[in-house]
Structures are given as C-alpha cells and as structure tokens.
Amino acid sequence: MKNKLYLSLSTMALGAALALAGCSPATPAGPTSVPAQNFTVGGLDAFKFDPPTLTAKVGEQINIVLDNKGVLEHNLVIDEFSLHLGPVTGGNKSAPGTFTPTAAGTYVYYCDVPGHKDAGMTGTLTITN
User: Fold this and answer.
1) Cα separation of 65 and 41, whole Å?
2) 68 or 12: whose pLDDT is higher?
3) Do residues 43 and 68 touch, judged by C-beta distance below 8 A?
4) Which pTM was predicted?
5) For residue 43, how many other CB atoms are within 10 A of its CB?
C-alpha cells in the first residue's frame, strides 16, 4: 500500500509539472536589444572629414557626432536619412544626430556650407546587411 501511495503521488507530481511546463512559453517574449553604433566625425578646415568612410549595419541605430576640429563653419548632411548636423562654427564644438538605416547601400555624407562639398568635403557611409 505504501508503494502504491508513493507511486500515485509521484505520478500526480509529474503530471502537474508537465501541465505547468506546457503553459509556460519556451522562450521569454519581448523585444531583443539591438546595439547602437557610435561614430564621431571630425570636420577639418582642409575641407575633409575624419574619418572619410564609415561602415554600419541595417537596422542598428547610428549615433553620430560632427566634431568641428577647425575654425570654419562645417556641417554634415546625409540626404537619404534626412540627417543634417550643424552648422557648427568654431573649433571643438559638436552636433549630434541619430538615425536607423533600413536598407543596405552606399551613401555620401557631405558638408553643404557653400563651396565645401565642391572642395572635397565628402565621405562615404556603407550600410551592410
């Protein structure tokens, strides 16, 4: 009798555990965290950006800061992402911006202060999958 009672209680406990496990999700629900990509781009009075190229991934937030390293006014524009940082006048001043690319491709960033883009103040942002 004692063994039958023990077996019966064990069977009930196993059944309860299986029932509870069936009610629980296999994986926790909720959004997954996507890492942000952080860039600082220097605007130089030599009509250049430093660095002149950036690489990022589709779907990951991009935090970008234009850091004016010169005394001339500079800004940073990426038309496809409606990003316009600045203008930043004077040295060691900055302007931040954020966007999330949704498509892979190669995009030009440039300074739209008159004459700066024509003088070569451009860079390339490559977005990969």
Assistant:
1) 6
2) 68
3) yes
4) 0.74
5) 31
